[in-house]
Amino acid sequence: MNIISDSRFVVDGLTEHLHNWEDKGWLGVACAPLVRTVVGMLRAQSAPTTFKWIKGHSGIEGNEGADQLAREGRDKPCVDNLPLSRLCPGYVAYGARLQAMSQKLAYKSIMRAAAPGIRVATERMSQQILASLKEWDCHPPVTALWRAIRGQDVRRRTRDLWWKAIHGALRIGKYWETIPGYEHRAVCGKCNVLESLEHILLECDEPGQRIAWGLAEWILRMKGVCLPPWSIGMILGIVCLDKDASGNKMPPATCRFARIVVTETVHMIWKLRCRRVIDPGFRRESELSPGTIEKQWMLAINKRLSMDQCLTARTFGKKAIPRNVVISTWDEVLLDRKALPDDWIFCAGVLVGKRVNRVAAELGGDH
User: Is the whole model's pTM more than 0.85, yes or no?
Assistant: First the structure.
């Protein structure tokens, strides 16, 4: 049997690296169960097998047909459940060779065997996020959601908040009900309902969140962004959202700007809530005034702008953000843009447009 493939992983793995993979117990091998099953099926053949690598997308009929079948499999509504463990079990070695074992491999093996199961709260929230994205014709896998949280568009502190929110690990609501002396923190002091992240971000009557979201909508309109209606699933899924309210695909710079604005707005609302609930020195009259909230929000957005400018420096090497990406992200929302040069990356004092006093004042009147 002659096998032709455009995958270096398949050809080199089954010809050069196979014995090493088996000696190490398949630790660190991508798609190990599937590769192991293929090895067993090949060894069960009585005839010799040869492999040949070819360049992909080069017009070879069989290769193009294989790509088409792969796309059809990817687009299936349900994943095929193959009984991989039952196929040719006698032709594949399981476990690792003692001679090839090292402390590092042993530790990896132990950690893999002791891997925790899926948290119920995590599964519930991730499915809620994916369902919200699906309503707007976005279909990312759950792995893409976790990768997006670790992207450059999400600051480290905001990333931590997103991670805890999806895992249901924030210290709100039911978390406080079993802690003696702190049961009162489980209930919102303003609305007298059990606190949840959705309540904090979207429903609470305390001044702050409504003004912050009004400012976010204002600056998104300056960029020409019209996002779907706010919901907890859409907010947490903003890291993967690439469609606007009309279902049209947004340009990469627009998606990036929307991620920055929404994540920074959520983080500011969360910090404001934590200070209001926990800090005994919190001054409600001054710190919850529309003007103060506006200043905090503008400071957070301008800090992100300054951070983007700094991250274009060559000292960051491959991790540096391209200058054209930063310019296309912020160009439409800068204060006095016409007075700035085309490449304003290293100009001092570049700020986001600040004519939002009327917005904050109008929104402040709702409270």
Answer: no
